[in-house]
Amino acid sequence: VKMKKMLVVYYSWSNGNTKRIAEQLANKTGADIARIETTEPYSGSHEDVVEQGKREVEAGFMPQINPISVNLADYDVIAIGTPTWWYTMAPAVLTFLTTNDFTGKTVIPFMTNGGWPGHVIKDMKDK
């Protein structure tokens, strides 16, 4: 029986909760880990980034992201983590989901939030 190879990929603006959960998940499962990073990092205070994130979510904006450090074709199971930004996934995760092919993969979405989860998981499944 072939063992399934797992990857945990995540976006975390501030090296916060999503990064910690992704690292714990990778550690517990023996999965590889990769971080989604925007080509132009968000800057400014937390409030500045929250406001920029709100504008991007409302506009359906998908920022450019850097290529991740691994080849998705090498994995059977991909866990994708995002913080909740304005009741949905972070725009960088939307970019990742819409620019990669997950055909034949088991995708496990996970999210973190500071109060209300919104409709993140539904939105991720719809992509």
From TrEMBL:
PROSITE patterns: FLAVODOXIN_LIKE. Residues 7-127 form the Flavodoxin-like domain. InterPro entries: Flavodoxin/NO_synth, Flavoprotein-like_sf. GO terms for molecular function: FMN binding. This is Flavodoxin. It comes from human gut metagenome.
